[in-house]
Amino acid sequence: RREAEAARAHSDCVMADGRRIEIFANLASAADAVRAVEMGAEGCGLLRTEFLFLDRTEAPSEAEQAAAYGKIAAALEGRPLIVRTLDIGADKPVPYLPIHGEENPALGLRGVRLSLHRPELLAAQFRAILSAVPMHQCRIMVPMIVDRDELRAVRAIFDDAAKAMGISAKVPFGVMIETPSAALLADSIAAEADFLSIGTNDLTQYALAADRGNPALAAKIDPLHPAVLRLIAQTGIGAAAHGRWVGVCGGLASDPAAAPVLIGLGVTELSAPPSVIASLKAKVRTLRLEHCRAVAERALAAASADEVRALLKGDF
Ligand code: PEP
Ligand code: MG
């Protein structure tokens, strides 16, 4: 029986009606990657590269980054690795990246904005990724995008780095949808991005105007809020118009109760911490798309997150 369970944990995740949903892992270290594979992850849907950049006095060298990315890719044994470019801002003290006097770091020079402000750091990160991650595993993802023009600016830096290295292989280049702007403009972004991955932590924070780190607000910040779900729906529509896949790598992907709604809104990839991979697969295997769509439609019409939660409890 244990063998059968292990085989199930490691086999692909297929819905009850035969549709494939990819279950990936969020990682922040090589140890995480080993654990993710043990737990049955089909790849990495979000590598948070911040771990390499925090708690130090100077930026990690290209060689150091390459060694770390290479180790993680190797631990994934050929599975896809979505590397997110550096996502930090003034909320995290990094002495070699002085960001001065921001009153609102969440609305400041963070994520892709910082990368475009310091393009030499971004180029170095791209070179490290391209030199260390085997091409068949390599995917790039950019955080905090608000529109297509930012994507173009980052991609130009990537293309230059790849060209200078003599790399002609096409590396899938995606963006995180974690600002309301990006969700609303998902159609124009999807025209030029290879995939979209929804960051529900930030998307919720920005949609509900509620600091995700403020404990006094924690009870009110629910990513199943219908306002957030409508942004996710818009993302699904925009991606479908261009035949792109949509995933979720924010915390909502870890909640098995949310899977029917997300799948009903067009999501085909869920990326979550290694510890929840098995329960997520088990839940998704019980679902049918037609039913997910009906649930999603009702969730979109709800007036509050509590209403959505009640709906999901009643239904599943
Ligand atoms: C998110 O915002 O949902 C996300 C996955 O990114 P992070 O939590 O690293 O900001
Ligand atoms: Mg985020």
UniProtKB/TrEMBL annotation:
Coiled coil: none annotated. It is found in: Cytoplasm. Belongs to the PEP-utilizing enzyme family. This is phosphoenolpyruvate--protein phosphotransferase. The chain holds residues 514 to 829 of 829 of the full protein.
